[in-house]
Specification:
- The complex is a heterodimer of chains A (about 110) and B (about 110).
- In chain A, about 0% of the residues lie in helices and about 60% in strands.
- Chain A has about 110 residues and is mainly beta.
- In chain A, the strands form two sheets. In chain A, strands 2, 4, 5, 9, 10 and 11 form a six-stranded mixed sheet that branches. In chain A, strands 1-3-8-7-6 form a five-stranded antiparallel sheet, with no helix packed on it.
- Chain B has about 110 residues and is mainly beta.
- The N and C termini of chain B lie far apart (about 35 Å).
- In chain B, a hairpin with a 2-residue loop joins β5 and β6.
- In chain B, the strands form two sheets. In chain B, strands 2, 4, 5, 6, 9, 10 and 11 form a seven-stranded mixed sheet that branches. A four-stranded antiparallel sheet of chain B has the order 1-3-8-7, with no helix packed on it.
- The chains are: A mainly beta (about 110), B mainly beta (about 110).
- Chains A and B meet through β9 and β10 of A and β4 and β5 of B.
Chain lengths: ~110, ~110
């Protein structure tokens, strides 16, 4: 049973397009994190959101935490080939972090 | 400052063999975690520890054991390796942010 469901599982788009990745759960989390992972490497933290309704921007990436702290979205504007990778969300539950199944993004030049 | 160090990086085990994956951090973090990641998937929590002498099960603890005799070290033990344990294993520790090791690729044949 996956505590965190991510959608879509796979996304292949052209450079310059916009996209949104979703992370949903039936559980409430104290914090939610987004990571990007490249093949053969460990996940790299992009952002942490802790307040319901919070929106954070990181250059072309916009992260939103749902009001009820059960879901989150990652929006990328004008995607570039360098954005290619596996995007993971992780929910913080006091001592533990549970990861979603990931969204594999491929941005074609 | 080495961060989180995992050894070995790669290992091939035969079914039924035992081995220990080592994890060490030099940041004096209390919280440490072991995850496994199957190809193209998210990370699943195996075990975690909130401090020396304290460990607890995560989502997928069966077939594994851990110990935390010091703050720095958090080894993961596989007692009777099975093909289902073929995976990439990541150790992590948490301070102001989460730090991942570089991963250990384990194949059980």
């Amino acid at each position: 049973t996956q505590l965190l469901e991510q959608s879509p599982q796979f996304l292949s788009i052209q450079e310059g397009e916009n996209l949104t990745v979703y992370c949903n759960s039936s559980s409430v989390f104290s914090s939610l994190q987004w990571y990007r992972q490249e093949p053969g490497e460990g996940p790299v933290l992009l952002v942490t959101v802790v307040t319901g309704g919070e929106v954070k921007k990181l250059k072309r990436l916009t992260f939103q935490f749902g009001d009820a702290r059960k879901d989150s979205s990652l929006h990328i504007t004008a995607a570039q080939p360098g954005d290619t990778g596996l995007y993971l969300c992780a929910g913080g539950d006091f001592n533990k972090f549970y990861f979603g199944s990931g969204t594999k993004l491929n941005v074609k030049p | 400052n080495a961060g989180v160090t995992q050894t070995p990086k790669f290992r091939i085990l035969k079914i039924g063999q035992s081995m220990t994956l080592q994890c060490a951090q030099d940041m004096n973090h209390n919280y440490m975690y072991w995850y496994r990641q199957d190809p193209g998937m998210g990370l699943k929590l195996i075990y975690y520890s909130v401090g020396a002498g304290i460990t607890d099960k995560g989502e997928v603890p069966n077939g594994y054991n851990v110990s935390r005799s010091t703050t720095e070290d958090f080894p993961l033990r596989l007692e009777l390796a099975a093909p289902s344990q073929t995976s990439v294993y990541f150790c992590a520790s948490v301070g102001n942010t989460i730090y991942f090791g570089e991963g250990s690729w384990l194949t059980v044949v």
